[in-house]
Write a sequence for this structure.
């Protein structure tokens, strides 16, 4: 993600502090989820995500973060309660149906298709003509630093590169709502920090809404306008903390006082979440 | 020698060839030493000269057998794939019909071949039906298995992107099924040949429509053992050729991406 600088910012500054009363784009109301095998994954989850927010879900393994994200994406159904997504609009050939894209916890690339084919898939499925999709695919690949790998099969990429291809596939949709399930979990610290910063740039420029799952407190504080802390067994929300950061967050923010203070607060909540588990 | 031993590819070809030649030599010498009569076990040299002598007869028979085999194979693939797609589309259909596919598979073809040959007037058609029945099952079961073993993550991705049923079938299920399908082809091509040979045995069609199996049967009756061996050799070579063709097809189709076909 290094060509951001050349892109003109669209729609002004977004995000860091969404004004109250802005449109809710994702809503979970009293949502419970019990899987067919009896696992009670989520218990009474209430969450609202407003347009332009960057919300991180933070919590121990197995607390239902992926489950919640999949329900927002419409891939899993809630057992009770209601999920609503208002990401619709702009339905045209160039803008695929729903304006929602998800990056899964695994890269989930088609092994029989080359990188470009994988990234193009959502556009192909939406019937976007090649003349429109090709530049968008190339742009997305540039954003994640995979230019030159268009004609490579996924198995020839490293795990981190596969994950980046998967992110490019979501970016190519130019989504209004971006659901990301530990997208940078498989990357080294350095690359992760770089991609975090690039994602933040992109978010500021394009003004989409992000729900971001992570295990890393630092990543959550650095990126988010709000961090939602979850606990396991059964999965539930135990804290919802707005993060007030500077207008532009950079490496300096990572070592600032408020940053460290937020990390401490979140770490306390997480400790509580983990205690509740045992 | 060292170089060949280190070259995996050359060794794969040369080692079995050397072994085969050695066995043939031992066979030849043993018969020469024991003076075994030709009507019991002919030496390779006699089989070879018989093959040359009967070339016209045997190759025209080979063509008949090949015709039956290939027609049956094409039928089996077409019907098998069609059935698999139907089963994959409708759970009810699969649950109610799959047991009968199994029944068809486990019933020995020799047991039902006489019936088919009585029921169907045209001997060629009857033999093709027999061979098709033998070759059908691996195609059905492998293709179904393939169509069903789709990565659930990819399925979710297609659902998220509002893919139609047709798009999911063509862009996801079919490519996922391909490796299984080609595995099925390999087994099925061999079975088609076996089915053809069995059908010929049962039908016993002679004259100008005589296949290799009929030649084997006749040679046995006439105690023309060298010709029996020569015909047998042709059947075996046909089977090997079919196998090699299927392996090559599979390599061409999957070579770029599937683990089973990636050469290192
Ligand atoms: N398809 C499924 N069938 C049955 N149980 C499931 C399924 N998917 C998840 N679960 C269960 O639901 C619970 C929550 O799973 P989920 O994947 O949402 O956790 P997570 O918070 O994303 O964990 P991680 O951080 O390890 O990815 C777990 O206990 C898990 O075992
Ligand atoms: Mg998860």
């Amino acid at each position: 993600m290094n060509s951001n600088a050349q892109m003109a910012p669209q729609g002004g500054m977004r995000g860091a502090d969404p004004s109250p009363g802005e449109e809710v784009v994702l809503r979970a109301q009293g949502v419970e989820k019990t899987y067919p095998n009896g696992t009670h994954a989520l218990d009474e989850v209430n969450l609202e995500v407003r347009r332009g927010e960057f919300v991180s879900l933070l919590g121990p393994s197995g607390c239902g973060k992926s489950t919640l994200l999949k329900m927002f994406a419409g891939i899993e159904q809630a057992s009770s309660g209601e999920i609503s997504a208002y990401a619709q609009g702009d339905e045209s050939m160039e803008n695929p149906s729903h304006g929602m894209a998800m990056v899964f916890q695994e890269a989930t690339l088609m092994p029989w298709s080359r990188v470009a084919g994988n990234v193009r898939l959502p556009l192909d499925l939406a019937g976007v003509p090649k003349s429109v999709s090709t530049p968008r695919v190339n742009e997305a690949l540039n954003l994640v630093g995979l230019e030159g790998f268009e004609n490579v099969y996924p198995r020839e990429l490293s795990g981190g590169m596969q994950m980046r291809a998967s992110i490019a596939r979501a970016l190519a949709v130019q989504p209004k709502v971006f659901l990301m399930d530990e997208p940078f979990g498989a990357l080294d610290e350095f690359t992760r920090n770089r991609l975090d910063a690039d994602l933040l740039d992109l978010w500021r420029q394009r003004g989409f809404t992000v729900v971001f799952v992570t295990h890393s407190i630092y990543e959550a504080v650095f990126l988010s306008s709000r961090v939602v802390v979850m606990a396991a067994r059964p999965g539930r929300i135990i804290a919802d903390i707005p993060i007030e950061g500077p207008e532009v967050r950079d490496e300096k923010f990572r070592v600032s006082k408020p940053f460290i203070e937020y990390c401490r607060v979140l770490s306390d909540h997480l400790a509580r979440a983990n205690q509740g588990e045992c | 020698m060292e170089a060949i031993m280190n070259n995996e590819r050359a060794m794969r070809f040369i080692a079995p060839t050397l072994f085969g030649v050695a066995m043939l030599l031992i066979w030849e010498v043993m018969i020469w030493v024991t003076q075994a009569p030709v009507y019991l076990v002919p030496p390779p040299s006699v089989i070879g000269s018989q093959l040359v002598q009967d070339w016209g007869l045997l190759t025209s028979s080979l063509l008949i057998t090949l015709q039956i085999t290939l027609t049956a194979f094409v039928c089996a693939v077409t019907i098998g794939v069609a059935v698999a797609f139907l089963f994959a589309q409708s759970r009810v259909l699969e649950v109610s019909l799959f047991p009968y596919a199994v029944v068809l598979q486990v019933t020995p073809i020799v047991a039902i071949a006489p019936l088919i040959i009585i029921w169907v007037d045209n001997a060629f058609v009857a033999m093709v039906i027999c061979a098709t029945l033998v070759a059908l099952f691996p195609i059905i079961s492998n293709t179904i298995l393939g169509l069903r073993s789709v990565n659930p993550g990819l399925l979710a991705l297609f659902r998220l992107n509002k893919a139609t049923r047709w798009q999911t079938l063509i862009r996801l299920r079919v490519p996922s099924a391909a490796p299984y399908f080609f595995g099925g082809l390999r087994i099925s091509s061999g079975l088609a040949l076996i089915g053809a040979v069995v059908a010929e045995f049962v039908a016993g069609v002679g004259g100008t429509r005589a296949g290799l199996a009929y030649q084997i049967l006749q040679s046995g009756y006439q105690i023309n053992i060298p010709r029996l061996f020569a015909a047998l050799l042709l059947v075996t070579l046909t089977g090997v050729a079919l196998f090699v063709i299927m392996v090559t097809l599979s390599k061409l189709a999957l070579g770029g991406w599937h683990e089973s076909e990636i050469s290192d």
Remarks:
- Chain B touches chain A at residues 151, 153-154, 156-163, 167, 171-172, 175, 178, 254, 256-259, 262 (CB under 8 Å).
- Chain B has a mean pLDDT of 89.
- Residues 201 and 230 of chain B are 17 Å apart (CA to CA).
